[in-house]
Each structure stands twice: as structure tokens, then as C-alpha cells.
Design a protein that fits this description.
- The radius of gyration is 25 Å and the shape is globular.
- It is mainly beta.
- Helix content is 0%, strand content 67%.
- The mean pLDDT is 90.
- The chain has an 18-stranded antiparallel beta sheet that branches.
Length: 424
């Protein structure tokens, strides 16, 4: 269980490629169906005893099922630099750039024609629900940041994380709206222009100490986030399309302006978490206090705050069985207003999870089974009629997850998973 701000269901800890000081280079070329062509480059170099760098790059082009109109074409760059003058001090600087002048397609299909056939026919996998003459989808992502750590002693470590990002998305398309008669699909002309800016910082101290037979790893920290979003949308009528006899290059009127929002969000969180090892037992307990404020379209600032907590226990049996139990709460502030013009309330959640992990002694196989129940309040969802944001009072999700993963030999691996969900 990780510290800090998180959505219910857990955290995915993504780690990008970073210098390994191994002086290795790699070039990759991939091709496949859908006119796929992909070229990758990975340079990992050691400059001297303290300095190393790495550059990963990737360019790709591929047509999705709908053919050339839904083409993906883009470039990704990921440079990073590490300065480590000694074993106690380390500085990482990294950046990320991705430009997708063609970002595929975000349309969807209806139940009629896919699950339910129409006169014995179903929608072709090559069918494009939009119109190539009224279609543009592109995006650009830029990030830069760094990590600094210094170990003052074997018992005390300081860590600082900082990241700034800019994200731009643009969509112009005829989107599927409602079913018509027979194989007809009613469409709307939509333009979606979104720009996001975000800065995140996390400053923390890690303490290691003992109280009797218990070994503690105490994490205390302060993180803050500043974000801005500017969104403009246009929505209007458009000609329908028959998926059995599609006609493209139709005349489309410029859609009228629908709505826009200009929001700013600030959030500061103070947290403490203790991980305790006591014989075969592992315990975790944490508290977090959040203060958030947001402003939408120049209106008065909305302020929210919440104290959340989490606790868990795990038993490490000698036979490889590790049963565990955890409970956690979360707080996610929402910026902006709903369809009625009211400020969105923070989404809160509580999760209980029980499971078991099993790794046979001496093997590389790991089997896990987990049951969980998540209850969310004030969940923000799009309104089916207007596509504007609205909030639901309460959503309960229960589920079971089974997973198998490991190595059968140095050449062969095995993985599999099963998930069952019940959502109300």
C-alpha cells in the first residue's frame, strides 16, 4: 500500500526508462497488420563515475480497424540524466515528449448492429462511424521533472520530487449519438479543444527506527499540486449514416458553441505513514490531511478539506502463504461545475480488501487471490443526454481477482488473470 493521494482500487506505479550505467544500445523495428511500422531507439550510456544518461525514442504509424481515417502516427522522446557523486546523494532529471498529429479515433458503436444483428447483419469491423472530411484528432504531451535524494544517515533520508506538464487535445468528428431506424446511426458534429497545465511537488523524510522487536519505516511528507484546465466544446446536428451502405464526404454545418470551462485547482496534502515489521507480521497505518481549493470561470473559490486514513496487516507464513487484510479511505476534489451550474463536490471513497498471496518456497511462481468492496460517493460522470458532468450519490463496486504469474524456466514464463465485478 503506497502513501499519499490515490483513487480507490489502488495505485499503478509507472516507472520510465532511466540510466542503468551499463553502456548498452538497442534499436527495434516492428511491423504487422494495419500497415504497422514502428521504430524504436534506446541509448543507455555512462559518461563518468558520477554521470550517466539515457535517451529512448519511438516513432510509429498504424491504421486501426476503421482503416486510414483512424490512423495513429506519432513520435515519443524520453531523455534522462542521473548525477550520483556518492552512495548517499542522487539527482535525476528527466523529460517526456509525445506528439500525435494523428491520434486514432474515439468514436464508438451501438448495441444495435454489434450485439444485436439487424436483419441477420452486423457492423463490419472496417466501418468508420465518422467522416474523413470532418475529422481531426491530435494530441501533444510535454513533461519535465526531477528527483533528488540524500541520505543523512542509515536512519534518515530526504527525498524531493518535482514535475511539470502540459497536455493538449483536439477532436473534430461526427460522433455516434443515438440509434436510428434499422441500420441507421444518428450522429452529432462535435469539436473538443482541451488544454491542461499541471505542477506537482512531493517533499518527504523517511525514518528507520526500532521499538523493542518492531522495526519501523516512518514516512512523513508534504505534497502539493497546481493545475489549470481550459476546455471549449462545439456541438451540432449532422447527417446520419447507414452502416450497411455508408456514404462519406457529406456536407456538415459548423456546429454552434456548446459550453466551455476555465478551471484552476490547488491541493496540498500532509501525510504520515508507518510500516511495521514484527516477526512474520507486517503492519501499515497512515493518515493524510488534504486542503483543496478550486475556481471555475472566474467565480468565487471553492474550498474543501478532508482527513483520510488507511490500515493493513499481512502475515508471512513459512510455507509461502501470505494472507492480508486492508481498509482505506480516499478524497478526490473536483474542479468545475455540474450541468445545473453548481460546484462539483469532492469524490470520497472507502475500500476494504482481503486476500492471499502464495509463492511456493524455491519457485518463481506467484499466485494471488483478492476480494474487495469499494463504495464511492459523489462520483462525477457525464450526463447521458447532454454529455455534461453530473454527480451520483453512491456507487458500490465489489469484485474478485485471481492472478498467476511467474517463470517456468529461464526461457518460459506463465501469466494469467481473472476478474469478476459487480457494480451498483
Amino acid at each position: 500500500m503506497l502513501y499519499g493521494q490515490a483513487n480507490p482500487g489502488g495505485i499503478v506505479n509507472l516507472v520510465t526508462k532511466r540510466p542503468t550505467r551499463q553502456n548498452v544500445n538497442e534499436a527495434v523495428f516492428k511491423t504487422g497488420s494495419g500497415q504497422r511500422a514502428e521504430l524504436g531507439l534506446d541509448l543507455d550510456r555512462k559518461a563518468d563515475d558520477a554521470l550517466s544518461w539515457r535517451l529512448a525514442a519511438n516513432g510509429r504509424r498504424q491504421c486501426l480497424q476503421a482503416g486510414k481515417p483512424a490512423q495513429i502516427k506519432g513520435l515519443m522522446l524520453l531523455p534522462s540524466l542521473v548525477w550520483q557523486p556518492n552512495n548517499d546523494t542522487r539527482l535525476l532529471l528527466e523529460a517526456f515528449y509525445e506528439n500525435l498529429p494523428k491520434a486514432g479515433d474515439r468514436n464508438f458503436l451501438l448495441r444495435r448492429g454489434t450485439v444485436d444483428a439487424v436483419e441477420g447483419q452486423t457492423v463490419s469491423t472496417r466501418f468508420f462511424a465518422g467522416d474523413p472530411h470532418f475529422f481531426d484528432l491530435h494530441s501533444r504531451k510535454r513533461q519535465a521533472g526531477g528527483e533528488f535524494s540524500h541520505r543523512f544517515s542509515p536512519l534518515l533520508t530526504f527525498q524531493q520530487f518535482l514535475r511539470r506538464g502540459r497536455y493538449d487535445d483536439y477532436l473534430k468528428s461526427l460522433i455516434v449519438w443515438d440509434p436510428g431506424a434499422g441500420s441507421e446511426i444518428i450522429r452529432k458534429a462535435r469539436i473538443f479543444d482541451q488544454h491542461n497545465r499541471e505542477t506537482q511537488s512531493d517533499t518527504r523524510l523517511q525514518w528507520r527506527f526500532a521499538t523493542g522487536a518492531a522495526q519501523h519505516t516512518l514516512l512523513t511528507g508534504l505534497d502539493w499540486r497546481r493545475g489549470k484546465e481550459k476546455l471549449d466544446t462545439w456541438l451540432g446536428s449532422a447527417p446520419s449514416i447507414d452502416w450497411r451502405r455508408p456514404v462519406y464526404a457529406v456536407a456538415v454545418d459548423a456546429p454552434p458553441y456548446q459550453f466551455g470551462r476555465d478551471t484552476a485547482m490547488r491541493q496540498t496534502g500532509l501525510y504520515a505513514q508507518d510500516q511495521i515489521a514484527l516477526g512474520p507480521w507486517r503492519f501499515i497505518a497512515g493518515l493524510r490531511r488534504d486542503h483543496a481549493s478550486s475556481r471555475s470561470d472566474g467565480d468565487a473559490r471553492q474550498k474543501d478539506s478532508k482527513l483520510t486514513w488507511r490500515a493493513g496487516a499481512l502475515y508471512q507464513a513459512a510455507n509461502g502463504l501470505h494472507p492480508y487484510l486492508s481498509y482505506s479511505t480516499s478524497f478526490l476534489p473536483e474542479a468545475g461545475k455540474d450541468a445545473a451550474g453548481d460546484f462539483l463536490k469532492p469524490t470520497t471513497a472507502a475500500q476494504v480488501e482481503a486476500g492471499v498471496k502464495y509463492q511456493p518456497p524455491g519457485s518463481q511462481m506467484l499466485l494471488t487471490a483478492a476480494w474487495f468492496s469499494i463504495t464511492q460517493k459523489n462520483l462525477t460522470v457525464p450526463d447521458p443526454a447532454t454529455r455534461l458532468r453530473t454527480q451520483r450519490g453512491k456507487v458500490r463496486t465489489r469484485g474478485l481477482e485471481l492472478e498467476l504469474q511467474g517463470d517456468l524456466s529461464p526461457q518460459w514464463g506463465l501469466s494469467g488473470s481473472y476478474t469478476w465485478l459487480d457494480k451498483k
